[in-house]
Amino acid sequence: MNKSPIGVFDSGLGGLSTVRAIKKLLPNEDIVYFGDTGRVPYGTRSNETIESYTAQDIKFLQSFDCKMIAVACGTVSTVSRRLIEALPLPSTGILTPSAKAAAAATKNNKIGIMGTSATINSGAFDEEIKAFNPEAEITSVACPLLVSLVESNWCSVDDDVTNPAVRRYLKDILSAGCDTIILGCTHFPHLAPIVQKIAGDGVTLIDSGLEEAKYIRDYLSENGMLNGESHIGKARYFVSDRPQNFSSAAETLLGENIENECEFVDIFKFFR
């Protein structure tokens, strides 16, 4: 048994899809979440900037003596993969769990990937999927606008701004006949009802946050690191910009009020 918390981070609100899944699958686990809302989005930054932000985010979470680090960010999972793998404690991103799930789910070997510009340009998902399914035909589409729409909490299934944007991004994926789509940014599972509505019931969506949470559950269980069943898991949330903006949107995405659990941290002052 290990009572230390699971550390989770993302550029903003997106990683709450991983938190939501962890809470469901591992209700006895404590979570420390950092959303770098002062520097969102990561997906349009240079690789060097993304790696610098990643190192700072991880160092902040390590101050809580986390037993595992979950990178709930598709951009960081792909661009900063070597940095994550070099950590001296258990860690995971969304890349491998999501690629493995997609390779297993597809029936026609045609897989679509929706991600940030940095994620798509890295080619990491293509490479990882091919490792699990060499026959896979992959259609990758950068969807930078969707991050901002989620951060603005424009996630309603009938939203008249988000729907046309999603439809436009899905055009090439659906034209290619993909029967499986990886939501390769943790912001995107919050838009899953819209994506599913447009893609149709015959298309399987891979929720990157859920697949990451499944990996965390299995790893902690197999290594005897789960918390005791008598413990009720608690979560703390930290952001690098106004907590009010974050907690308001998070209430919709998580289905619970986290106003009293959300704190501001000056990430720049933390590293001086």
Notable characteristics:
272 residues, alpha/beta, 10 strands, six-stranded parallel beta sheet
Structure description:
By secondary structure, the protein is α/β, with parallel strands linked by helices. It is built from 13 helices and 10 strands. Strands 4-3-1-2-9-10 form a 6-stranded parallel β-sheet, sandwiched between helices. The protein has a 4-stranded parallel β-sheet with strand order 6-5-7-8, sandwiched between helices. Strand 1, helix 1 (16-25) and strand 2 (31-35) form a beta-alpha-beta unit. Helix 5 (95-105) packs across helix 11 and helix 9 (162-175) crosses helix 10. The protein starts with 5 loop residues before the first strand and ends with a helix.
The number of helices is 13
Tell me the strand order in the biggest sheet.
4-3-1-2-9-10
- Label the overall shape: globular
Task: Quote the distance from N terminus to C terminus.
Answer: 35 Å
Tally of strands: 10
Residue share in β-strands: 15-25%
- The radius of gyration computed from the alpha-carbon positions, rounded to a whole number of angstroms, is 17 Å
Task: Sketch the topology as an H/E string, one letter per element.
Answer: EHEHEHHEHEHHEHHEHEHEHEH
Share of residues in helices: 40-55%
State the oligomer: single chain
Structural class category: alpha/beta
Largest sheet: 6 strands, parallel
Task: Flag low-confidence runs.
Answer: none
How confident overall, as mean pLDDT?
Answer: 95
